[in-house]
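Q: Hi! First time doing this. I have a protein sequence and I read that you can turn it into a structure. Is that right? Here it is:
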Amino acid sequence: MKLAAIDIGSNAARCQITNVFNQNGLVTFKRVEYVRYAIRFGEDVFNTGYISEYKINKFIKLLHSFQLLIDVHDVEHFMICATSAMRTALNSDEVRARVYDAIGMKIQVIDGVTEADLINKVIINFLDDQNYLHIDVGGGSTEFNIYVNRQKMVSQSFEQGSIRHMHGHNSAELWNAMRYWIEENTQKYQLNRAIATGGNINKIFELAGQSTGRPVTLEQIEAVTARIAATSMEDRLTKLLLNPDRADVILPAAEIYLSAMKWAQLDTMLVPAVGLKDGMLHALYEQHHPDRFVINKID
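A: Yes, that's right. Below is the predicted 3D structure, encoded as structure tokens:
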């Protein structure tokens, strides 16, 4: 069957269409189409409180293009989730109503707990019997989860992300709350390693030149971060080949990842290159195929 997930983040909107194969309870998710567009709702919402008329009109066109792509691929089921920027926007209800009136697509605004639960559906496939701190940094929020023996013990969402941080929407109180939560739970659960999700850490991992499936070290992340910081915005685009919407947020995101690792006293991190959209696809399949299954592969 074909499934689709549309993830409307604070920085970008993503549409992924995936084939799902079930062989005797072993399920493989195989991506057949992926489109990402930097809608950047967070720039509007975190500065003015509202999504602008210009971006609303562009957003409707973008979702219509996703809708056509879903139709062309004969997708059986799809899900649309919006995160921090949409749940913060004062005109969120209006935006979603206008989308529904224009193209008939319903958007589900999810809270940080639900976001973390969806990511949990796929992240556990990359864990072993060590104790992990999972760090997921988006444009508007950061989710922390702690896993012991592949079981999630505690989680917490903070309204701090790369775009909020870039625009100075943070406080000592918020950073102290994040630090306190990590330090308290590090002591309680004796963490061994970090595992991270998010577009920025995926790019940092790539720039570190680490092999797929191998952990990246704190020192490697710091080295990549220093390299980016010493590079002009133009060179980030032309030499490091960062997308424009990645080039300006990658350092604020890196600061969150590095801070979390240091607070937890961790020196290695796994970066499995999965995220909310993959969890949404898992949830969709689970919803329509409730029989027990095990993920064989996510590609």
